[in-house]
Amino acid sequence: MRKLLALLLLLPCAVANATLTVTLRGTQADASAVSTHTITPSSTLAAGTMGVVVCAYSNAGGGGATSNPVASFNDSAGNTWTLRVNQNYDPGAANAGATNAIYTASISTQVTTSGSVAPTTGSSCIAALRLYEVSTTASGVDYSTSGTNTGATGTAVSLVTGSLTSGNAVICFCNWLANADPTYDSDTSNGSWAAGGRTGVAQPRSCGVQSKVVTATGTQTWNLTITSVAHNESWVEISELTSAVKTVQGLTKSAVKTVGGLAVAAVKAWQGLQ
Q1: Whole domain around residue 147: which residue ranges?
Q2: Structural domain tally of the chain?
Q3: Are both 265 and 190 inside the same structural domain?
Q4: 73 and 135 assigned to the same domain
């Protein structure tokens, strides 16, 4: 057991960071108010990756004053999705603001182009959604943290994240009331932003997204140039699940099994002495 513990302490020292990759796997634009927002992947969401869905909803819940409650989230492969952000911006009227949601899932079973990924809201709303896959050349990926702005009208879009760990990926998105492409961020502080992408509906509403793999630990500022309308911004950080972590997990399970086996053997030996 002492040798096992010593090995567990040494393993993290031998880990080299791999490279995270953020890939768009599908979009959905619901121009009419619905409660189930179904994304059909344009390419396979692979097993062993992290799925991320960013949702730009109209603020239809409670006449605009409350976040649209999340009823459920399902995909055709049975993966478990977790709500990470649920932020409502209400400027005083239904559909005049922006409700943001971010979901993540560790993909244990792939979702193919014949499958679906479908969040359901508590009431019908207009929505623009984008599905991303975060993958790595290491052993896996994991959710780290997330955050959001509170929303505004007529101001510049500027989102500041929490402190991001070097090598991790951050996905930032904006939900705003226009159906037009913005000017995306192009700064190279702690890494370069990937090309931006947008899904929009004629309501109007847009979901604009950029991602970055950061090259140094620290906060990240994301600026987007849009027309002077209501908007709301959120972000999520995804990290690597390194081979050392998986090795430790495997060794821990083996150690538990070994201890359990010894305990059973001891009980049997004691019973034999009775």
Answers
A1: 18-241
A2: 2
A3: no
A4: yes
Confidence grade of residue 18 (pLDDT, cut at 50, 70, 90): low
Q: 208: part of which helix (H) or strand (E)?
A: strand 205-213
Q: List own/partner pairs for 79-85 with CB under 8 A and 24 or more apart.
A: 79/51, 79/105, 79/106, 79/107, 79/108, 79/109, 79/111, 80/105, 80/106, 81/51, 81/53, 81/105, 81/117, 81/119, 82/143, 84/143, 84/146, 84/236, 85/146, 85/147, 85/148, 85/234, 85/236
105-148 residue pLDDT tens: 999 999 999 999 999 999 899 999 999 999 998 889 999 999 99
Looking at the structure, do residues 173 and 115 belong to the same domain, yes or no? yes
The reply to whether 56 and 159 lie within a common domain is yes
For residue range 240-255, what is the model confidence (pLDDT) as tens digits? 986 544 444 444 444 4
Which residue type is seen at 137?
T
H-helix or E-strand spanning residue 84: strand 82-89
Q: Which residues pair with 40 in a beta bridge?
A: none
Residue pLDDT, tens place only, 189-205: 999 999 999 999 999 99
CA 176 to chain CA centroid, nearest Å: 20
